[in-house]
Amino acid sequence: MAEPSVGEPLLRVRGIYKNFGAVQALADVDLDLPAGEVTALCGDNGAGKSVLIKCMAGIYEPDQGQIYWEGRPVRIRNAHDAAALGIETVYQDLALADNLDIVQNMFLGRERLRHRLLDEDSMEHAAAETLATLQVRSVRSIRQPVGSLSGGQRQSVALCKAVMWNSKLLMLDEPTAALGVTQTTMVLELVRRLRDHGLAVAMISHNLNDVFAVADRIAVLYLGRMAIQDRASVFNRQSIVEYMTTGGTGMGAMAAPPGNGGGRA
Questions:
Q1: What is the DSSP string of 72-105?
Q2: Which pLDDT belongs to residue 261?
Q3: What is the pLDDT of residues 136-152, one digit of tens each?
Q4: What is the pLDDT of residues 57-99, one digit of tens each?
Q5: How far is CA 186 from CA 166, 180, 217, 253, in A?
Q6: Residues 187 and 232 reside in one and the same domain
Q7: CB 102 within 8 A of CB 184
Q8: Structural domain of residue 15, as residue ranges?
Q9: What does residue 154 show for φ and ψ, rounded to 5 degrees?
Q10: Which range is least confidently modeled, 42-46, 81-85, 175-179?
Q11: CA dist 108 to 103, 198, 220, Å?
């Protein structure tokens, strides 16, 4: 696979449209997702955030537009195409089986075989290595049933599962939703480590505290269109809320430092 050119985002979408009958979910959307950076996708309910990541994940095919991967035009028709490129997505339901342990969940559907039998030793070693690499130390045992884990631990397992397969882009749908303060901190630290390992991370979030805690870039969708995307340092909470609710911002809204303002929009 060709290496991306200097300054070339890992993934680019250009002019993406997606309609569902008479409903236009996305219209002329551009987005850049650079490697080694966290890009927060913000927007009000119905702005098109989930539809956009599902277009990149192969759940939906865009009606118009082009997706570029490492500078090359690609067509992502299904989740298999996305995975083959190195795109993994963690949705809010996490897709974990409570009755299986951590190792079994991390290899669910991708089990390793040796002499036609499950290669338990190989899978256990790979799972332990991935958790150690990403410094996930909150679980008691990798043979612990997922049903016994806290929300933050479950999210950590889902993220580690997603990065096991030579992933380059990880897309997260509200990874801290319904988590307490301690568990949220644990998940955000893991998101930073994913970035520090060179992955591109796209994170949908309504929580602006979480956005400013980890995002290098922020992209705001409004009624299916990209209102703005830029470095996180350009924004404050007021300006993001204005882009989310009106599609634009008044003069001076960008002037206050990111630390001012409220939390959840």
A1: EEE---SHHHHHHHTEEEE-TTTT--TTSBHHHH
A2: 40
A3: 888 889 999 999 999 99
A4: 999 999 999 999 999 999 999 999 999 999 999 998 888 999 9
A5: 23, 10, 21, 31
A6: yes
A7: no
A8: 1-86+168-265
A9: -65, -45
A10: 175-179
A11: 8, 25, 34
Specify whether the CB–CB gap between 3 and 48 falls below 8 A.
no
Answer for the pair 92, 54: CB distance below 8 angstroms, yes or no: no
* Cα diameter, the chain: 67
Strands 225-231 and 169-173: unpaired
Q: E strands of the chain, at which residues? A: 11-20, 23-33, 38-42, 64-69, 72-74, 87-90, 113-114, 117-118, 169-173, 200-204, 217-222, 225-231
Do residue 18 and residue 100 come from a single domain? no
The strand pairing partners of 11, in sequence order, are 33, 69
Instruction: Kindly state whether residues 180 and 70 are assigned to the same domain.
Output: yes
Residue 244 tokens read as 């989310």
Closest Cα partner for 265 from 234, 230, 235?
Answer: 235
Which CATH number belongs to the domain containing residue 3 in this structure?
A: 3.40.50.300
